[in-house]
C-alpha cells in the first residue's frame, strides 16, 4: 500500500474513503471482493499512483473488470507491499533471535572469565595448602566452577543449534514469499514483474557469454469472444488451460510468463531457431487439438487457438527492442490468419 493510502486508512478520513471506494466499485460494476477492495483503495485514495493510473486505463476501455484482471493487477502491484511486510516480520524475528544469541554469548563469556579467575586463584592457593581439608575445599571449588562453565557452554551450544534452525526456517519462508510475489495468481506462471527482470538478466547474460537468446510472445485468438459469449469465469478457465500447456513446454531453463491479460511470453536461452519454432508449433498443435468444455455446464466451447511471434536477440540489442520485434512478429501472425507462428527475422527479410 502506498504511503499516502496507508496514512489515510489510519486516520479520520478512513471511513469516508471506504464509503467512496464501495460507491465507486458499485458504479463500475466491480464486486467488492477483498482483492478488488484493496485495489480500489489505491485507485480512489491515490488515483495518480501507478496502480490508480492502470485501473483508470482499464476502465477507459469499457471492458468488464474480471477476476483475471484483478488477479493480474494484484500480482503486479500489491505483493510489493505484502512482501515488504513479510520482510519486516522476518527482520524482527531475526533481530530477536540474534539478540538472544548475543545475550547467551555474553553470559558464557562472563562465566568463562569467572572460571579463569577461579583457576588463577586456585593456582595461587595451591602452594599454601597445609592439610587435606584445605585441599578438599579447593578441589570442590574448582569442581563447582568447572560444572558451571560446562553448563554455560552447553546452553550456548543448544542456543546456537536452535538459532540455526530458526534462521533456516526464515530463509525458506522468505524464499516462498519471493516466489509468490513473482507468480501470477491465476495461471501460476511467472508474472509481468518476474518476466521483466528475467528478460533483462537473460539479455545481459547472452551478451556477456555470446550465446543465443530467443523471445516468443503469444496471444489467445479471439479471447474477447470467449468472455463475451461465456463470461469471464470461463475466460479464466481458458487462460489457465493455455498457461498449463505453456508451463509444460517451458521447463527450466526456459521461462513462461503471463505478459498481459491474454498475452504470454516464453524466454528460450541458448536454443537455435529450429528448436524454438518446433516448440511453439507444438504448443499451437496441442492447444488447438482439444475441444474445451465449460466447467459449470459442460457446454462445449470449441477449440482454442493461439498466435505467436518470436525474435532472436541481436548483438547489442536491448530487452525492449527484442520485445518490440517479437510483438511485431505476433501481430504479423494475427494479420496472417491467426493460429500460426511468425519468425521476426524472416518477417524483416521479407519486408
Question: Could you characterize what this model shows?
Answer:
With 351 residues, the protein is an alpha+beta fold. The protein has 3 domains: 3-65, no CATH class; 81-181; 192-350, 2-Layer Sandwich (Alpha-Beta Plaits). The chain is 68% helix and 10% strand. It is built from 13 helices and 7 strands. It has helices at 3-8, 14-28, 34-45, 50-60, 67-77, 79-126, 132-181, 192-209, 223-230, 232-249, 273-288, 319-335, 344-350; strands spanning 213-220, 255-258, 263-269, 291-293, 300-303, 306-312, 341-343. Strands 2-3-1-6-7 form a 5-stranded mixed sheet, with helices on both faces. It has a two-stranded antiparallel sheet with strand order 4-5. α6 (79-126) runs antiparallel to α7 and α10 runs antiparallel to α11. The mean pLDDT is 82. One of its GO terms (molecular function) is diguanylate cyclase activity. InterPro entries: Diguanylate_Cyclase, GGDEF_dom, Nucleotide_cyclase, Rev_trsase/Diguanyl_cyclase. This is diguanylate cyclase. Its EC number is 2.7.7.65. It comes from Brevundimonas halotolerans.
Question: What is the structure about, briefly put?
Answer:
By secondary structure, the chain is an alpha+beta fold.
Topology:
Layout: H1 3-8, H2 14-28, H3 34-45, H4 50-60, H5 67-77, H6 79-126, H7 132-181, H8 192-209, E1 213-220, H9 223-230, H10 232-249, E2 255-258, E3 263-269, H11 273-288, E4 291-293, E5 300-303, E6 306-312, H12 319-335, E7 341-343, H13 344-350
Parallel strand pairs: 6-7
Antiparallel strand pairs: 1-3, 1-6, 2-3, 4-5
Helix pairs in contact: 2-3, 3-4, 6-7, 9-10, 10-11
